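hey can u check if this looks right to u? its 294 residues, i copy pasted from the old doc so theres a chance i mangled smth
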Amino acid sequence: MTTSATAPALLALQQACATVGLDPSTAVPVRIAENQIWRLPGGVIVRIARPGQAAAARREVRVAQWLAASGVRAVRPIDVQQPVEADGRPVTFWGELPAHEHGTETDVALLLRQLHALPKPDFDLGYLDPFVRVGERLQAATTLNEDDRRWLHELHQGLAVAWEKRPAGLPECVIHGDGWPGNLVRTATGRVMMDLERMSVGPPEWDLVSTAVRMTTTGAVPREQYATFCDAYGIDVTTWPGYRTLAGARELRMVTYAAQHAASNPEWAAQAQHRVDCLRGRRGPRPWNWKGIM
């Protein structure tokens, strides 16, 4: 099925599948966002990344292979030479997971604890950039007025300074980078890690902040569930002196992600503006009710 949203990646899908000997004629779109995800018959998932992301795609495949060798359950690349460059975009091929659902807070905590305990691999993962693509997203956020965009730019600059001066925390390690229940899922046979593109070396608090923000900022996680997360991991990151800096970076990313996509998806404009209004103190104190953006 081809729509106006899926059409830009269709040529890449066809070219990449031809390169590795797969048939894309009955491919079905699974998720159309910054990266496009397609399903092929036979349990193959095709991931079409943005142009210019070939190095990241190669690293993601290598990370998956390293996790498999380390005993961590995660998505697995299929046995073809990849990534494939097609129509200027890197394309990777993965084994489809069995039926699964979002992980619980305990699932997330236990997978993160297992990951954080691993020794660093013998290849370069790169160091965490907590503000990756924030500037690009702000530039694309055309539904916001100039005053709001200027304020967000200033917030970005202030948080970048605070990040460099953040207090010491836990020892740095391999981190997932986007550790929320949609990426750390549960199948009938156990917990599985997905979406490996943001894995890097950095402070483990960055992974823990994702769940904490869902309690303190968006209100998606009740305090009782957050307490189970802390018990399972062994630490409450909200008590760390650097929490507000990392939480602020997470909030900024969530706002700019929504604002960027509102420019091409008008139905998200109200939510993007709502998030900006919350940060600017126009919607009362945290937690706020932020709806998901796909």
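The mean pLDDT is 94.
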